Amino acid sequence: MASTPEKKVKDKCVKLLKAYDVYYFFPATHGFGRSGVPDIITCVRGRFLGIECKAGKNTPTALQEKEMQSIRDAGGVAIVINEENLTMLEDTLKELINDTRNEQGRADIT
After folding, report:
1. Residue 53 CB-density burial (10 A; 0-12 exposed, 13-18 middle, 19+ buried)
2. 87 pLDDT higher than 50
3. In the chain, is it the N or the C terminus that has fewer CB atoms within a 10 Å radius of its CB?
4. If DSSP codes are grouped into helix, strand and coil, which group holds residue 26?
């Protein structure tokens, strides 16, 4: 089975996530899942990061934009990655990993 252009972007994202030892998963959106959520959901040092993968000049749908804005409004990070801006994902990971406010601002919940 041939790999789609978007699948190639997802594979490159996963390779970076693994290199930085980041927790991630692909949410199931069909059936009982929620439509419009980003393709890859991650947790980077306690910070929520949603990654919407696109191929070429494709852009997020209105529903995807709404979901990403909801993530940002809740204090998370949401980005759109394609073949041309993979460095944005790596820069975002580095920023989240090196953000000392994460450790200082986290509340312990027991």
Report:
1. buried
2. yes
3. C
4. coil
Please report whether residue 110 resides in a domain: no
Domain holding 57, by residue range, is 5-101
Q: Which two structure tokens, joined as six digits, stand for 25?
A: 């998963």
Q: Which amino acid is at 50?
A: G
pLDDT of the residue at 45: 93
b vs e for 82-109, b when ≥16 Cβ sit within 10 Å of the residue's Cβ? beeeeeebeebbeebeeeeeeeeeeeee
- CATH assignment of the domain containing 21: 3.40.1350.10
Domain count, the chain: 1
pLDDT for 27-73, tens place per residue?
987 777 788 999 999 999 999 999 999 999 999 999 999 999 999 99
Q: Tell me: pLDDT of 109 over 60.
A: no
Round to whole Å and give the CA distance between 67 and 82: 18
Q: Round to whole Å and give the CA distance between 21 and 83.
A: 21
Domain assignment of residue 68, yes or no: yes
